[in-house]
Amino acid sequence: MPLSVETRDLVRTFKGEKGSVLKALDGVSIAIEEGEIFGLLGPNGAGKTTLIKILSTLLLPTSGEAYVGGFDVAREPGKVRRIISLVSGGETPGYGILTAQENLWFFSQLYGLSSSTAREEIKRLFKDLDFEQYAKTRMSKLSTGYRQRLNLARGMLNNPRILFLDEPTLGLDVMTSKRLRSYIVDWSKRERRGTVLLTTHYMAEADEMCDRVAMIAQGRILACDSPLTLKENLKENVITRLEVSSVSANFDFMEHMPGVVGYSQTRSIQTDTTTLKLMVKDESTMSKILTALKKQDLKILSTSEEEPTLEDVYISLCGRGFEEAEKEAQE
Amino acid sequence: MIRDWVSRNWKVVYARLWVRVKGGNREPEWIVAEMIIPVITLSAYIFMYRMLNAPAMYSGFVILGGTMIAFWVNVLWNMSSQFYWEKETGNLEVYFAAPISRMAILLGMALGGIVNTIVRAASVLIVGVLIFRTPLMLNEPLTAIFMFILTIIALYALGMLFASLFLMYGREAWHTANLLQEPVYFFSGSYFPVFGTAGIPMLVQAVASVIPLTFGLDGIRRVVILGQGIGNVWVDAAALIVFIAILLPLAKVALNFMENLGKKEGRLTLRWQ
């Protein structure tokens, strides 16, 4: 199968404060086959957007190589731009004073579409993305969800061979997210129109849409496989969700406890509880943890064993969840 | 291949022009902001000249200055800092990921700005001439049109250069545009003629000579108000041609340079600076 996207040992650094150097990508090598929906999953600051910006010719790599559709992104950016499209979630490119339809016509001209082709494409996209009724509404008057539909429609106008989606459902309601996800899957799989590279930090989104997922943290690819295989690899572990009685519970004792693969925690100030997701190698480790929690006078409010998810894959690789990784990156 | 490239980029020029014209005229508030307020400003100068018993031609100087200054304001606010706004709205990312010449975007912006501003400037000119009954002495209309076209091309070439230089700027673009507005009003002689006027220091005349608008205004005033011809304004015309010959290629070089720098430093689409 020919490759749509390939990176070899890609490195990108940025100048930080006081002359420090921040490594956003640290030797990233991926290969995405034609027609694949490939997900890059990682917390904020993991390097997902940096990678997508390099692949869409908006940023140069510090070292390494990147090819899109067989073209070198650094040396042949013009050829790359002819076959790609980039849709960034949370962005609303366009002009507020123009209607949705007028905005799409304008963007169609950036790809040289003839007036008749543009008209047909725009009509089709309004229909496919289910917002025909807003065609003549000014962009400034559209809700966030419809603006994002407009943004996705813009990205589809040039019928790209490779579609880069950077957090396409960021901040959207459940229904709109679902609509956009199913449209993208239909576009790539049922209509066999192109390859998709999707970045997200929503586990369920990656699980639902992607043929393969690469887990990325601190600019490094930690694992890359189908969601099913990634989860299957965790079957030997015990995954438990625990709710304990205090928001200020201390779980540092688990950091170096033998048998603990990793854990993530969500603290709720309103209910004064902490929900722990634990991954351990065996039941005996679980018992030790429960004993240690009881010693802290914490009440175990509920426990449930769970099937592995992509979040658990990330925990198994990093020892912590997305929230902890994001906090650590901010510090 | 070249034909395809020209056809594709011409569509971009037209589309960007269309956005500017459509967007600029959709809401009628521009009539107040860009026609009535400039006429009030002109009135202040005209009444002042009349109080000082200045020759009637000074009213014409002011009206033509006010007309042409509309183009300078457009170049500053709708050309120079435009890429900054495009960056903030996410449009710049779309432009730079598209297979188009960046100069086509700039040209479309410039032509759209020219179309919009011609309408506004013509309104100011007509209203000003009718209200103040300014005497015009136009013997060579073609020379006037020629000088006007040269001035506009030189001004918008400067705007394209600024737009390229401001590509990576954050809020500084806004401040720089602010910084350039009033001094150019003064040095270009919007409300008084700079060249050859007694009392205008040589230093001011020297600074004025690096601004295309100064030559344009001087030439247009000579032809439209003083009734002079091409023989009298050839120096202004030559200066404008030199400006165009330098500024247009410089804008392209600056744009390429800034784009590459932005891609290297990661500042091309970095916002909230």
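qc> Chain A touches chain B at residues 12, 14-15, 50, 53, 56-60, 78, 81-82, 84-86, 88, 91-95, 97-98, 102, 105-107, 109-112, 154 (CB under 8 Å).
qc> done
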